[in-house]
């Protein structure tokens, strides 16, 4: 799996730490870190939750080009 630099950039643009995003998404900081590193494939529901928190679409964060 490739690193999710889009997620990291969107999180930073909202001035959120991994811990902040994790708390808002209802997961651990380690989960957010693993998604960003490409070590964890999140469920669709978690992807949707993260998108809502970051005010992005699934395409914005998770579609590979």
If you average the pLDDT, what whole number results? 94
Count of separate DSSP helical elements: 5
The end-to-end span amounts to 13 Å
Proportion of helical residues: 55-70%
Residue runs with pLDDT of under 50 for 5 or more positions: none
Order of helices and strands: HHHHH
Major sheet characteristics: none
Outline of the structure:
The protein contains five helices and no strands. The chain has 65 residues and is mainly alpha-helical.
Describe this structure in words.
It contains five helices and no strands. The mean pLDDT is 94. With 65 residues, it is an all-alpha fold.
Descriptive labels:
5 helices; 65 residues; mainly alpha
Please specify the SSE layout and strand pairing.
Layout lengths: L4 H9 L4 H8 L3 H9 L6 H11 L3 H5 L3
């Amino acid at each position: 799996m490739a690193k999710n630099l889009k997620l990291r950039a969107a999180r930073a643009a909202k001035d959120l730490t991994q811990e902040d995003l994790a708390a808002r998404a209802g997961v651990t900081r380690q989960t957010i870190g693993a998604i960003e590193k490409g070590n964890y494939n999140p469920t669709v529901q978690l992807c949707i939750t993260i998108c809502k928190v970051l005010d992005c679409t699934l395409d914005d964060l998770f579609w590979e080009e």
